């Protein structure tokens, strides 16, 4: 099985209400449970980023498509990885997307 990187993109807000946080965590835990042993690294959300552009220009807030977090999964091929991502809870918010890329083992 190959490993795939899910990069979550978007700039929504984290839930502030305890009930919303619990509902969000329940959704993520349910999705991870459905994926089972395919989850290699459950990942984490990430904070606000900076982007370094050619020539050294720095763009705050991750540019036009900021990274929101990541997960690493195993799948038989990229189509399988895409199918697994379709139920990702982050996609309940139309402001988010999941980028999927194969991890190429170099070492």
3D architecture notes:
The chain is α+β, with helices and mostly antiparallel strands and 107 residues long. 24% of the residues lie in helices and 36% in strands. It contains 2 helices and 6 strands; from the N terminus they run E-H-E-E-E-E-H-E. The chain has a 4-stranded antiparallel sheet. Strands 3-4 form a two-stranded antiparallel sheet. This is YCII-related domain-containing protein. It comes from Mesorhizobium cantuariense.
Question: How do the helices and strands line up, and which of them pair or pack?
Answer:
Layout: E1 2-10, H1 18-35, E2 39-45, E3 50-52, E4 58-60, E5 67-75, H2 78-85, E6 96-102
Antiparallel strand pairs: 1-5, 1-6, 2-5, 3-4
Task: State the helicity in percent bands.
Answer: 10-25%
Task: Trace the largest sheet across and list its strands.
Answer: 2-5-1-6
Number of helices: 2
- Please give the number of β-strands: 6
Observed structural traits:
two-stranded antiparallel sheet; 6 strands; flat; Dimeric_a/b-barrel; YCII-related domain-containing protein
Quick structural gist:
The protein contains 2 helices and 6 strands. By secondary structure, the protein is α+β, with helices and mostly antiparallel strands. InterPro entries: Dimeric_a/b-barrel.
